[in-house]
Amino acid sequence: MLGNDVVAPHGPPTAERTLGELGYAAQDLAEIRRILHQPDGIVLAVGPAGSGRTASLHAMLEAIAPPCRRVRTIVDTVPRRGPGWLQGEAGDPEDGRGHDPLAAQFRRLLRSRPDAVLLAEIDSSEEAQMVLRAAQAGCRVFSALHGGRAHHVFSRFRAWGVAATDLADHLALVVAQRLVRALCRHCSLPDDSEAVRDALIRAAEGWRIPSAARDSVQVRMAGPGGCNHCRGEGYRGHTLVYEWIEVDSGVRSLVEEGVGAMELERRLLADGRSLWDCGLRLVVSGVTSLEALRAAVREPR
Ligand SMILES: [Zn+2]
Known about the structure:
The chain has helices at 26-36, 53-64, 101-111, 125-136, 153-159, 164-170, 194-205, 211-215, 249-257, 261-268, 275-284, 290-296, and strands at 42-47, 71-74, 85-88, 116-122, 140-146, 171-183, 189-190, 220-221, 235-246. The chain is an alpha/beta fold.
């Protein structure tokens, strides 16, 4: 089945969000779109379970269709999305020869020369190696990784036996993300607590909040007891908090130099580009609360 070039007659279901609806800031969205339209490379979404990684990967794949029409997926929990996507299930029962079913399936899948492959999650040395081999063969690979921060992907792959330089050579984009509870607009209250003032002062010292945002701070907290709109929770829905790294020649040079995770973070995710800073901007604009951000993202010391 995987060798067939099937074009599904239906479009994507409307329940899932497009790339533009996920919650990226306009400038980030433009940059991410530009990177996605490059002809090759691995795209990784990093985060814990429930952080919306699959939705992001789907939206990214949709964003590059129709130029990228032959999409193959190895996932068993999400429905096929775009036209031209063909879904296989992880753990193909066809393989009874004692090989790892996923690896066998992946090999078959690559023989069908897809434009892009979506692998639900990389969670083993074998999967990491497969993804690298696919990218080396010129296939675009989209996958998720359980983890905390974007720059951690290099050490994760290293632990799986993939040299950071080999990964960097084929990695295009890493997005780390969380879903943070969004305040109910009907019952949230202004929050000028000491905790908020401290967090904002620390952010301002590190230039993590743009001065324009600092001038219009409207930090809010969940209203005690909530209201009818939020069923008494004070929060309604979630908002995306993210950080991203474009793996370009500059990043490859850093990796070749063998710089550690802390230095990578300092060089790539400073100046307001970290997960925490992204979240803090949403706190400052009243979208979420400091409490909700702290529940989802580790605060830098
Ligand atoms: Zn409410």
